[in-house]
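Quick start: read one record
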Amino acid sequence: MLASPIRLDTAGALGTPKELDLDNLSPEELEEIAAPWPVRWLFPPEPDDPDRVVNLFAGPGGWDAGVRDVLQHDLDIVGVELHKDASATARTAGFSRITADVRSLDPKHPALRWVRGLIVSAPCQCWTPAGKRAGLDPANQELLLDVFTMAFEATFGHWHDSGECGPCEVADICLICSDPDWDGYAGFTGPLLTLDEVRAPIAGMTDERIGLLAEVLIWSLTLTAQWDNLRWLAMEQSSALPELILDGIREELWSADWCSAEYRVLDAVDYGLASRRKRVFLMAARHSYVDMAALTPKAPLPITTAAEALGWPAGIRVNTRGVRKTAGGNCWSADKPATGITSKIRGWYWEHDKDRKFSLDEAALLVGFQAGYPWTGSRSSCTQQIGDVVAPPMGCVVLGSLLKEPWEHKLRTHLSKIYGRPADHSSPKESHMDSTATTEVDTEYGKVTVRRVARDDVPEEKRAWTASYEVTGPRMKGLVHVQPQFNRGEDFELLPSQVEVVMSTNRYSKSHAEFTVNGVELDDTHLFHINGPEDAKRFSFFRKTDNFRRSELSDAGEARTRAGLRAVLEAHYADALFVHDQAVSFARARSQSRHCETLRALEGKIAEAEELEQVIEGLRHRLGVLGDLEELAAAQRPTASVVDAPEESCANVVELRPASESGEVVIEGLRAGDRVRATGNNTLGRTVTREGVLLVDPKMATVQDWGKRVKKWRLYIDEPGADPTRSNSVTLGPDATVERLGAERQISLIAAA
């Protein structure tokens, strides 16, 4: 228990930590206190010191190499890794490692007081198609969600409202009402469980590696409650990790007043890697919002084939399964990006040459490491490290986005270095800055020179998206401004597709512009909704006069002005990257609501697509299993009757029970398979009505309700056979009732994986 409890208005450090007296201690005594962490971590960091970061399940150095070698950003990272060979690889590469089981270390260690970042990459074999997927068993998932809730109780406890709520259930240890100076306000009780008690339910799971995922909350919540110096969290996991689990992690972080926690499935091939590597990344920030848009490069990165990356000739096919034939095939073409790299790459070979296998450098290049990385251990151990590691380019992208560090140009440079291709794929901003600012355009009146210039007289708030051009040509000259503009008929346009052109100054304008043709200066010329150079012919122009009367230009003057306008627009649109940067700056500064609404709509569609992709991935896995000759032969053997079969073999058997009574019923009386109609809240807090079959038994869950943690019923209602996800969940109050529709109850008996 921490000393000196205080009243809290929000989640944070639950007390004043006891200060260590480190003066006059010998180096040996300091090492003993700090062990196994660095002695320097016992002392406060200097203002210019890099952020201290704990990297759990750190492996051979994927995240570390992504920060140091690709992002080129300075972080003081200490990794924890149980695998001795992986730890040795990381140390040889220059990274700090503690060889230990993550669960054997204490997140409350005094050396962790000033840790600012946490990285967690728990083993993923229990979730992936390559493993037995025990993590997808609903019983295991329910236990894991319970561990998540217990992790909060072991760090923050419960929210204690005030003296009006009745006697405190934990008054003897509550940090709020046990304080003699308690003023009656609310706060968290403080820890109610030990970390050993939190991890105890993991023993009931069919694969204890499932429970390792709970360490992301055990460590992040403990560091928040103990010291409240942790500022960000990055987690990597298999793309098959259910949204139910990801949402469970997010809910506990939100309960601890973390400002933002978002996740997205990323495929490394979309970031220039020469192999497919799909993973889900969760990014969370304690006091700021995570910008998921920062994960998207400003311009597409080049697709790199395996043959290009490895310097192989065209036409090579790689065999991954020997003589085994499956529905998914046993070969892939090196003229495309490689399939996902696993530890099995140690046995892959060229289809036409069985003796030509992958070297360690070749395997590592496909996941983004530089040649010569010091892999340590047997060949099997090294390929296992390569198969499990976080690709350094993805570490650069995720941590760069989370820390608001520019990553795109550095990633392109890294890819060009390891894959031996020219580094000519810079970002849009970097590309146009190096391009020429002068363009010559042929018109019917001769060549017109258009030169982009910087103008100090443009209002400062508009400079980020205003392009100014000096125009000189046959009997024409002037200064013209071009600014982005949204299509008036498109309410949800993400970026402006049109421009506004200012060719003269009126009394209300803050930007000076002028255009003179045939010796006549234009008057009050602002041209709107231009999609391209061809729109120059749409406009009429007026001459500048000393009074309020407007007189048109001569036909010859108007035609020559249109030619000058077309020259400006051709020069402007010729630099597509510059136009893109202008549009982004304008949208972010002037149309934030439109921009955000569109991003939300896009993210919704992306989430739907990712969910469908996971279903397809599962089907492909099942097809691969059915295609295996041994599995297929076993499936074709006669099966015993259901009556004689042992209980554990009854997977996917559906039992029909007599119809239940219809009408309003209490939730405690419902069971999986009941057909119901329920009205409550979804995970976004919106009121929804769901009708269908209960996929699992009702469960009491701890949820946020107006800033408080309360117990409510959570039901998962959908068509039979569907998986319980947030998209079919509904939350109801503890005393709520639902309508039972009286259909036959179906119960799916699912064997443990």
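The first strand starts at residue 52 and ends at 56.
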